[in-house]
Amino acid sequence: MSVDPGLEARIELGATVLRAVRGHHAFEGCVEQLATAIRLGVYPRGTALPPERELAERLGVSRATLREAIAALRAADFVHTRRGRGGGTVVSYRPTKPSARLARALLPRSEELHDMLVFRRVVEPGACHIAASRELTAEQRDFLVTAHEHVAEATDPAEHRQADSRFHLAIAAVTESPLTVRSVTAVQSDLHDMLVAIPVLDVNIEHSSNQHKAILGAILKGDATRARRVMESHCDDTAALLRGLLA
């Protein structure tokens, strides 16, 4: 699994996750995509969003619409504006910590979220299979290794949850399939809501970390069958935990 330590992970996850807004609700679409990217840690607290022109092009909206969306995020305390040289829109969102209140808030969505766990069982193992089947570039391999290292190094539970999401999104990103990325992003968004509503369990974190390591190893070795099987087990274990604690 060795990767050239001098090679930086130059793949920008936001460029993969964010996509052109469709339909007539451009403002709402921008807010949804940017807020989701921030919540999942694609843009962690303290980092700057891409320049306005780049974001507008990526989302397929006018700069005026983008400014309105950023103003909404600012009002919701997701971002703040830094003035002067080196300024820009900086993420101020604090990752959510687990709480019983969040668990109660999910009750009206229980049927929808349980169905998401079924959908995840289809999508994410498939993404692993595709990623392991491809001839990954050195840059893509380094991107995956770096994403995995961030999960392993995170000590704060809320930051660990975001790093976990980024690892799963990184796997989707190297498939180079926009529909796969879109599906995994949707799954991770709902999964994030569920996981922050249950206690952080050290045994589960350790088990999950071992599975992440096995998934990464299988992808880098090109073992598509093992990559799929380990991700299936990972999805099954997470689903069992959530169904038990949120039932």
Please outline the helices and strands.
Blueprint (H helix, E strand, L loop, with lengths): L12 H5 L8 H14 L12 H8 L3 H13 L3 E4 L5 E4 L8 H6 L4 H24 L4 H16 L3 H18 L3 H18 L6 H20 L2 H23 L1
Antiparallel strand pairs: 1-2
What distinguishing features does this structure have?
mainly alpha, Four Helix Bundle (Hemerythrin (Met), subunit A), 2 domains, 11 helices, 67% helix, 3% strand, globular
What would your notes on this structure say?
With 247 residues, the protein is mainly α. The protein folds into two domains: 13-91, Winged helix-like DNA-binding domain superfamily/Winged helix DNA-binding domain (Arc Repressor Mutant, subunit A); 100-246, Up-down Bundle (Four Helix Bundle (Hemerythrin (Met), subunit A)). Helix content is 67%, strand content 3%. The chain contains eleven helices and two strands, in the order ααααββααααααα. Strands 1-2 form a two-stranded antiparallel ribbon. A hairpin with a 5-residue loop joins strand 1 (79-82) and strand 2 (88-91). Helix 6 runs parallel beside helix 10 (202-221) and helix 8 (157-174) packs antiparallel against helix 9. It is globular. The model is unreliable at 1-9 (pLDDT under 50).
Mean pLDDT: 90
Q: What is the ordering of alpha helices and beta strands?
A: HHHHEEHHHHHHH
What share of the residues does DSSP label as strand, in percent?
under 5%
Shape: globular
CATH class of the largest domain: Mainly Alpha
- Low-pLDDT sequence parts: 1-9
The proportion of residues forming helix, as a percent range, comes to 55-70%
What's this, in brief?
The chain has about 250 residues and is mainly alpha-helical.
